[in-house]
Amino acid sequence: MEFIYDPHYFLTSSPNIEENKKLREPQKNAYSKAFEHFVIDNKTSHAIIVLPTGVGKTGLMGLLPYGISKGRVLIITPQLVIKDNVVGSLDPEYPANFWLKYDVFTRIQELPNLIEYEGKETKDEWLELTNIVVVNVQKLQERLANSLMNRLPSNFFDLIIIDEAHHSTALTWVEVLRHFNNAKVIKLTGTPYRTDKKKIFGDITYEYKLSAAMAHGYVKSLEKFFYIPDKLYLTLDDDSLKQYTVEQILQMGIRDQDWVSRTVAYSPECSEKVIVESVKLLENKLSNQNTVPHKIIAVACSIKHAEQIKELYEKHGYKSAIIHSRLSKDDKEKALSDIENHRVNVVINVAMLGEGYDHPYLSIAAIFRPFRSQLPYAQFIGRILRALPDKEVTRVSDSIAQIICHKELNLDDLWEYYKKEIQESETIKYLASLNLDNEEDDSYVDKKGKPKDTSYGIATEEGIGKLIGDTYLTTKIIEQRKREEEEELEKLKAIQQILNIPIEEARKVIAQSKGISSTIRRPDLFIKRKRTGIDSRIKEDIVPSLLDQFSLDKESTDLSSCRIFKGKYFWIPINYKNNGAFLAVYINTVLKDMIGAKRQDWVTSDWDLAEKKLDEIEEYLIKVLEEFTGQA
């Protein structure tokens, strides 16, 4: 078969993007903003797109070159798991590739040429004939003879797309951008901050918040459970005669909180208690013959620690697979195959299944290691957020991910981010109905011949512990799940009374009666995108953020006494019912007043101006609300 290379392919193709109902709004909005950045505004700065896990980042990579790239495209991934995922999704030879599956194109002849760069195995001829090259960053190191930088001229690529761009400060990434220095650069990430907590270099052209993704069902909702022991005792230096409570350890200054959390992490006794509770959560998801193959994903401190966790899960009858960087290729492939084909119930991960691993049936995150920063914690939690395909969801609980950990792992602060996002997601759901115009480390393992590691001690428990859920979470989906559970309990009691049988027998009767659950289930466009973009920013970003920042209840009406409603906008609290609506309508009305015309009369330049004016309105509201809430 002869391959034909069209150097102008991305400029002459006609992909179905703007009116494509199969694409998600954040994908279309992100594409539109990148197009605006490079083509309409003719900017040369790096474009940063922030999308949470599960929203459709790989698909977005498949859209971004069209109309933007004047030549070849290089997609750089930070690790092999992500590279394999990108290649698999965008491979034109794969029947379910992104472009055909989502109706971006309808004929295979319309698809781009794509290759995976594999060093010396990749021939120069293949590079010349391709439109898209996907490469793992390790293959780009300048010291390697077969690095792309040593084989290709600096003008070979017109567009570079960097996935998981918070890694992009590493030397290899910098060398790549220095070599292909005339290429446009788009950076995709789940966070606008690098691994060293500094901002990523470039302009944020589009950011879609996790709260919006939850509100629109692009990712699962989320709840967290702490296991709290009845009594917990710690010992130092294997001296079992002296036991201390956590409070005594900290008050006496014997050890710090990090030592406590490491000790709990390495305690088989503490781990087993969390394992038992995680298994209960899984059994609840799988009850009544649920056909969805939900799984637990666990994270351990080290390979040795992971093996201990595996033994404990299998002791309780749950088949487990361990994934870590030291597995042979064959063992890794077998483990991944066992996961994909549902031959295991538990996946134990040691700094391996972080970014890029896509398995929507991972629904419970069991944490057995301390996290000290947001990024690795967020990457791990991201593994359970990916939503199930709609047609596979059989009950509300299928769309709720759960986190479980021991209270003394001290992860409360890292959970605060998710609490905030969940609260904002509820505000977004409410505002959606508002019409404004009438989204390994192995370092803890004892090495033979080395002194005993004293960075942790021994933890033992007494009594019966308890599981505490975060009562802050009151999303509609979780409330609906509670109603379903209450209804199920009423049915159980009725069956139990009628048949005079134990409650477990009643469960079996209901399950049998249900049987196996069956699975349910151009210019004008540019202006349209601008319009929806402004609406989304008001409803999904500015208002939820303000309500959260100033601890305002969206259902309350206390903002009616705020100074902004004392003058010409006095009518807003009279006509709308709560704080969320007050702010959204106020912002939209002020915006129209600043432009000096109704929305339907705005021209293209007015929409551009409106985006800038939104920044001014938001800054003003922050000052007003600081005064109103006494935070000034």
TrEMBL record:
Keyword annotations of the record: ATP-binding, Helicase, Hydrolase, Nucleotide-binding
A Pfam family matched in the record: Helicase_C
Residues covered by the Helicase C-terminal domain: 274-442
InterPro entries the record matches: Helicase/UvrB_N (IPR006935), Helicase_ATP-bd (IPR014001), Helicase_C-like (IPR001650), Helicase_Restrict-Modif_Enz (IPR050742), P-loop_NTPase (IPR027417)
Domain Helicase ATP-binding, chain residue ranges per copy: 38-210
Source taxon at top rank: Bacteria
GO terms, molecular function: ATP binding; DNA binding; helicase activity; hydrolase activity
GO cellular component terms listed in the entry, alphabetical order: cytosol
The protein, known as: DNA/RNA helicase, superfamily II
Organism: Desulfoscipio gibsoniae DSM 7213
